[in-house]
Specification:
The complex is a heterodimer of chains A (257) and B (332).
Chain A lengths: L2 H6 L9 E5 L5 E5 L3 H32 L4 H22 L5 H5 L2 E5 L7 H10 L11 H9 L6 H6 L1 E5 L15 H6 L10 H14 L5 H19 L7 H14 L2
Antiparallel strand pairs in A: 1-2, 3-4
Chain B lengths: L2 H23 L8 H20 L7 H18 L7 H17 L2 H23 L3 H6 L1 H10 L11 H28 L6 H21 L5 H8 L3 H23 L6 H34 L5 H21 L3 H10 L1
Classes of the chains: A mainly alpha (257), B mainly alpha (332).
């Protein structure tokens, strides 16, 4: 995590495992990094696929060797290609994704967040052979991932690549709270246009998003420090709950009417 | 403008980009339509603008997160992997690799280790009766002796049997030997020590067997078998070792870059040599499977060995020199 990622926004991005990228369009955006456990699951899927492919190759070879005597030679060569070429083929031709990575929304990119080159795909998968050395059972790769700040295994380090998460998040929506009687009762006091400012807007949006997870008492405890000055400013009734105050302000700030 | 109005206004664009990305991410061999690519560019730029202005619009953190993910996906759809070009691969193996190898201390070191240990152990095993038993073990030596009991020319008696062995063994050599070679390169990441270890252990085993086989009655059969593919196969091991050493040495001598940057530079530089090694392993496997095991006369096998040695020397000494030669001809 570089220094600039902290300075660019008021959010503390340093705690999360995110990578900052500046595109040619002069846009800065963040990528979440993929940790060992996500990658292990994707790797498991790839292993299952590889095993299935290997079985298919050998069954095909068996069928071929019934008629002619040539079957097993090409099968062994095909097995070699699959063993060393699986990752190179998928990552080098399909934009950094093996089927397992595709299934779990992972992608291999360069350390700068750009698409990898074919050479990088070859290096990362060839040198990657040492990550799963037999006596250590993937411990080399795991140790390397835990010691580097981009979760890179040795193959990644040699190729200068990292694995990121490409999330398909759901389109967020604005919460409707004005149907709740307590909030509706407060709305007439709050002006139609509220210039909340970016910090207050974010706090309100975060609160309204998570409030449904908490009980009544906990909501009050969380909302009260912010609700007190708001009650004073707009002259809201003193008996109104802090939760309703924040919801009413949220409604005016984000939805207006 | 209220946040909700702004969102409502922009949402159709985001939805369209989302759907377009889903169709583009499908596995397809065909390139996407030009109209789709154009539309992708437009939508990508406009979502970039939304993300840039997200903070000043007071969008909720969740929406900003969504935009980050959307821009990320669109970015990876716009900027893509370039894939492999056959021309680049051929040029790397035929032109770049010999050019690098000529001046590569790693190659000299690898040659010294491999052939030095090979010769040393071959001489020791040939000169001392009990030496080979101690190094590779009695069981393996007996197996080797048993394998070469029948002269290769007599194996043709049952032609169907020998044919099956040929194809099967060629495939086996591709799988087994190339895997050893690639592993030898990969282990170089441990400061080159892994490559030295793989080369040394192979050189010791092979050298001992070669030396020992000279002292037993099956000597002729054995040497007839190994002549044809020997030059390619042994050199392929040396090439993989040299590539691994070069990568490992990058961690030691950084030439002013960071350790990792230096490792990356040398790993990249070692790739043509790895490619050359893989090609040699394949060639050796075919020769070993189809020629070494076949009953053709020894003179042909020997000339193949001679030819492949000459080809290797020419590759190392003259490969990739094209331009320099053509300039020289112009001068003359």
């Amino acid at each position: 995590m570089s220094m600039s990622s902290l300075s660019s926004s008021s959010e503390l991005t340093g705690l999360d495992t995110t990578i900052r990228l500046v595109t040619p369009e002069r846009i800065v955006f963040l990528y979440p990094l993929a940790g060992p456990f996500r990658r292990a699951i994707a790797y498991l899927i790839d292993m299952i696929l590889e095993t299935a492919l290997a079985l298919a190759i050998f069954v095909l070879a068996l069928i071929l060797s019934i008629q002619t005597t040539l079957g097993f030679g090409p099968a062994l060569a095909a097995y070699f290609l699959m063993l060393w070429g699986y990752g190179i083929f998928w990552e080098g031709l399909f934009n950094g994704r093996t089927p397992g990575k595709r299934m779990f929304g992972l992608r291999v990119v360069t350390e700068d967040g750009l698409p990898i080159s074919a050479t990088q795909a070859v290096i990362r998968n060839t040198v990657g052979a040492v990550d799963g050395l037999i006596p250590f059972c993937y411990l080399t790769g795991l140790a390397s991932m835990l010691l580097t700040n981009r979760f890179q295994r040795l193959g990644d380090l040699a190729a200068g690549t990292m694995v990121i998460v490409e999330e398909k998040t759901w389109r967020p929506r604005i919460e409707r709270t004005d149907k709740e009687p307590e909030v509706a009762a407060l709305l007439p006091w709050v002006p139609l246009r509220v210039g909340a400012g970016s910090e207050l807007s974010r706090a309100l949006a975060d609160y309204v998003k998570v409030r449904s997870r908490f009980g009544k008492a906990r909501r009050e405890e969380m909302a009260e420090p912010l609700a007190r000055p708001i009650r004073l400013r707009y002259g809201l009734p003193a008996g109104s709950t802090a939760d309703a105050v924040l919801c009413a302000l949220y409604h005016r700030a984000f939805l207006g009417e | 403008m209220r946040v909700v109005e702004r969102l409502a206004k922009r949402e159709s664009t985001w939805r369209e980009l989302d759907d377009l990305l889903l169709t583009l991410e499908d596995l397809k061999w065909k390139p996407a339509d030009a109209s789709k690519v154009l539309r992708l560019g437009e939508l990508y730029r406009s979502v970039c603008t939304d993300l840039m202005l997200a903070e000043s619009y007071d969008l909720p953190a969740e929406t900003v997160g969504y935009l980050h993910a959307l821009v990320g996906r669109a970015h990876n759809a716009v900027y893509r992997v370039q894939g492999f070009k056959f021309k680049d691969l051929a040029e790397a193996v035929l032109m770049t690799a010999p050019r690098q190898l000529r001046n590569d201390p790693a190659l000299r070191f690898a040659l010294l280790i491999f052939y030095g240990l090979f010769l040393l152990f071959a001489l020791l095993a040939a000169g001392r009766p009990e030496f080979a038993n101690k190094v590779v073990g009695e069981a393996q030596l007996e197996q080797m002796e048993h394998m070469y009991e029948i002269p290769i020319t007599d194996r043709s008696a049952n032609s169907q049997d020998s044919q099956r062995n040929d194809s099967m063994m060629a495939g086996f050599y591709i799988l087994n030997n190339t895997t050893i070679g690639l592993r030898c390169f990969a282990w170089g990441i441990f400061l080159g020590i892994g490559s030295v270890f793989v080369m040394a252990s192979n050189a010791i085993t092979l050298g001992t067997v070669f030396g020992h086989m000279a002292t037993v009655p099956q000597a002729e059969n054995f040497y007839t078998f190994v002549t044809a593919h020997g030059p390619f196969e042994l050199t392929a091991v040396v090439f993989s070792g040299a590539a691994g050493l070069r990568m490992g040495w990058g961690l030691v001598v950084t030439k002013g870059q960071s350790r990792l940057g230096s490792l990356r530079r040398e790993a990249q530089a070692a790739m043509p040599t790895v490619g050359a090694a893989v090609v040699l392993f394949f060639l050796a496997a075919f020769i070993e499977g189809f020629i070494s095991a076949s009953p053709i006369p020894y003179s042909i096998k020997f000339s193949i060995a001679l030819f492949s040695t000459t080809a290797l020397l020419a590759y190392l000494l003259l490969g990739g020199r094209q331009q320099a030669i053509s300039i020289g001809e112009e001068d003359a």
